[in-house]
Amino acid sequence: MNWQLLGLTFITVFLSEIGDKSQLATIALSGSSSAPRWVFWGTASALIMASFLGVFLGERLTEFLPLNTLKFIAAGGFLGLGIRSLWPKKS
């Protein structure tokens, strides 16, 4: 196992997730809950499961699609989301 890669990935994801909506929801729920430890464990397990599913499905997709095609699809998806977020909402 490449421990340097594992540590770098962990630090990068940890820093990018600090201001995430799930972090704010966790703070709000733990402040109003009578069992903040359960809120922490539920949030932590949900983040781990979402990350696991992302890695698992990404690995499976690379078995069927070439890596460059998968990167192109992901870039197109992010570009589409970015452009859509710039459109004004219809009333």
TrEMBL record:
It comes from the Bacteria. It is a multi-pass membrane protein. The chain crosses the membrane at residues 38-57, 69-87. GO terms for cellular component: membrane. Keywords: Membrane, Transmembrane, Transmembrane helix. Belongs to the GDT1 family. PANTHER family: TRANSMEMBRANE PROTEIN 165, TRANSMEMBRANE PROTEIN HTP-1 RELATED. This is GDT1 family protein.
